[in-house]
């Protein structure tokens, strides 16, 4: 039974099923046109809601707590009226402490939003009863939450001259009395005079443990897999290649699998559970390990998804910044669609893919499957050259045959004929008896 999309002050990707192709080589994946057999299928449904803030404090941390100075958000908030979807545990008030962007380039040099991803390392139990279920597996969605925070322009500070550190904006009094309003999945925090300080959305990602299903995948082979969105030689330059976005259904109809370069997926029997459902402790431990592996934990309370926005120093860049490819994907999707759930789901899925194919050679799974792969062959598109080549061959055959016929009819004596007559005389019976 499918759970309806959340649309009231929310964005919800709905159930999106993706199967991993169990091939280590890219050529095996790009030439595949038919696959029937077991495969790992995941559903990373993601929904974002506007949080209701209970307490909020934005303060300058000199680095005593985290080791990196900067503006930090210390807040408690919760998502209301979603208990039937998220369960009681995830509807409780949560507390976050994470670094915010307070130094970035202006919009003339970067279109990226100063977005911080806030998460906490906590053993939050995945509810398995009286909650919404993944229709494919019949198991709990296993939602975990992440918070996206966009800093307002008022938080943009400046650098000291020379080798100095960042100077925070001087507005502590204004930050002590914030008001809030919702705008779709976002909650906007404003000062008393209406200046936007930040906007936040709380996103819940299904990290349901992956299981194997019997599937059938059909489609067309592709020339190559998508390349990077960002130039590896220059982490600040965006390419025009958006194949990875099309593959994820951004900027193209999700139903157009041929245009996306993906295969149609049909799921049959399953799932083949890798863990017993009555092993509650093992399930909770596995869910936590999967989440930590996907998101990891930062001493700064989260990660930066701002990409090429300038940071305070090298230490912040190394510790806080996500890989430029993840940031580029997030920013590109957020700009094109305005949908934080879709952008965050794409990033989490790419990390999921990285983990799967990184570990695939180690496990070396073997299954009996039926596949059809395409093979490149050269087929003439124009017949002119082909006809000319065939005509030349025919003329060559005619001339050769004509030469042989004329030689046989017109030639009375030749070196070959003389040699043959000499051999014939030597081996003839008359000549042999005379010896």
Outline the fold blueprint.
Layout: E1 11-12, E2 17-19, H1 26-30, E3 32-43, E4 46-49, E5 52-61, E6 70-78, H2 83-86, E7 94-99, E8 115-118, E9 143-151, E10 158-159, E11 166-167, H3 172-175, E12 179-183, E13 186-190, E14 196-206, E15 211-218, H4 243-247, H5 257-260, E16 264-267, H6 280-295, E17 302-304, H7 314-320, H8 324-337, H9 340-363, E18 370-373, H10 384-410, H11 415-427, H12 429-434
Antiparallel strand pairs: 1-4, 2-3, 3-15, 3-18, 4-14, 5-6, 6-7, 8-9, 8-17, 9-14, 10-11, 12-13, 13-14, 15-16
- Give the averaged pLDDT, no decimals: 81
Main sheet?
8 strands, antiparallel
Percent of residues in beta strands: 15-25%
Question: Spans of 5+ residues with little confidence (pLDDT < 50)?
Answer: 232-239
Task: Write down the domain tally.
Answer: 2
DSSP strand tally: 18
How many distinct helices? Answer: 12
Order of helical and strand elements:
EEHEEEEHEEEEEHEEEEHHEHEHHHEHHH
Radius of gyration: 34 Å
The percent range for helix content is: 25-40%
Distance between the termini: 108 Å
Global morphology: elongated
Structural class: alpha+beta
